[in-house]
Amino acid sequence: MTTITELSATTLLRFATAGSVDDGKSTLVGRLLHDSKSVLTDQLEAVTQASLGRGQDAPDLALLTDGLRAEREQGITIDVAYRYFATPRRRFILADTPGHVQYTRNMVTGASTAELAVVLVDARNGVVEQTRRHAAVAALLRVPHVVLAVNKMDLVDYAEPVFASIAEEFTAYAASLGVPEITAIPISALAGDNVVEPSAHMDWYGGPTVLEHLETVPVSHDLTACHARFPVQYVIRPQSAELPDYRGYAGQIAAGVFRVGETVSVLPSGRTTTIEGIDALGESVDIAWAPQSVTIRLADDIDVSRGDLIAPASDTPATTQDVEATVCHVADQPLTVGQRVLLKHTTRTVKAIVKDIPSRLTLDDLSQHPAPGQLVANDIGRVVVRTAEPLALDAYADSRRTGSFLLIDPADGTTLSAGMAGASFAAVTEAAPDADTSAEDAEWDF
């Protein structure tokens, strides 16, 4: 019998790359695309011509991702570059994120939906401040798999002790933040060592190449273990001669599984009813799971509108108007105490006010700077927000989909901050540094 897990298993991996300036992120991505035969001929020709124009004998593979003119002129990554490629074993969506401190917010964008993050380190420099910053962002965003790619091993004579020292330092730091899985791989992106093909210069390393790890890392999970959540996006009322009484609630299942006959609650009202039917792709089905887009029909004619959340009656999130969360501030304008904002959670947008900013996180040493009064671009801090209407929020540790939200400027629609409800990794680590987190990790919803 086919299980829900087998039906929902995906061959798609979303991953992000991060690292300090000049650590070789774009070169790694270019090498990955080139050696996996994922570059079109005209693209490679364009890169070859651009490289020759800069006096380079060989194609600069970093140009495959650095698409902005300023990026090519400065030799850095500024914006998040998305690339789509595939191998016979898996499809990939790659987000190449910037390394500069002032573009840390771009890593938040790229890693927010990632199941894996590749953090690059220059073998000559080891773990630096920006390395720790990227590890902290990955931990805050609950990225389940982190790869430490120790790059430029050719410049340290492929020395095993250099790799071992860096891997030990980074692994200890990332583990202290609660990152559940860390894999260290020694590479040379420029020479192609251990990127797609195993290196002939590092026979002391017996682990996978970068591509092999990307192709085999487990990303599917048992959807029956997730908290079932269905944000209503649209109410369907044809009121036609063929369907005079049809009322369905359309949207994408954010997590978990829904079945016909199941008792559910509609939040924030709390009204209880049962699922009378589920329509998917024009067909009636008995069961549906994330991330399917479906229409759910309820047995009772109750008031349900866009922004409401349907969840099993036995497993509903608490509704609240006081949201405590960690936010990554991404706007150039600061976020201040007393500021009026819009809070967008799944398909629901409500008015809100920033009641307090208790602390700002110092990523250098993970210390908390109390009562900063405001958050500026690239800051990460704790906030307390009061909403005009109740919200059904999960903790971000339980669900990345229904535990996240955006703070928006009501004047012009600018995104101000990306929020994660509940405790940050720092609070969890400080409260129980030696606690077994396996149970919590198992409930992370990706």
Q: Please, could you describe this protein's structure?
A:
With 446 residues, this protein is an alpha+beta fold. It contains ten helices and 25 strands. It has helices at residues 4-8, 25-35, 41-53, 69-74, 104-111, 129-140, 160-176, 210-216, 425-431, 438-442, and strands at 12-19, 81-87, 90-96, 116-122, 145-151, 181-186, 230-231, 234-236, 248-252, 257-259, 263-267, 271-280, 283-285, 287-289, 293-298, 309-312, 319-329, 335-336, 340-345, 348-362, 367-370, 374-375, 380-392, 404-408, 415-421. β24 (404-408) and β25 form a beta hairpin. α5 packs parallel to α6 (129-140). The longest helix has 17 residues, at 160-176.
Question: What is the CA-CA span between the terminal residues?
Answer: 25 Å
Radius of gyration: 24 Å
Main β sheet profile: 8 strands, antiparallel
Strand content: 25-35%
Average pLDDT number: 83
The DSSP helix count reads: 10
Oligomer: single chain
Q: Structural class per helix/strand content?
A: alpha+beta
The 3D shape can be described as globular
**Total number of β-strand segments?**
25
Q: Kindly state the percentage of residues in helix.
A: 10-25%
Task: Detail the poorly predicted runs.
Answer: 1-10, 68-78, 426-446
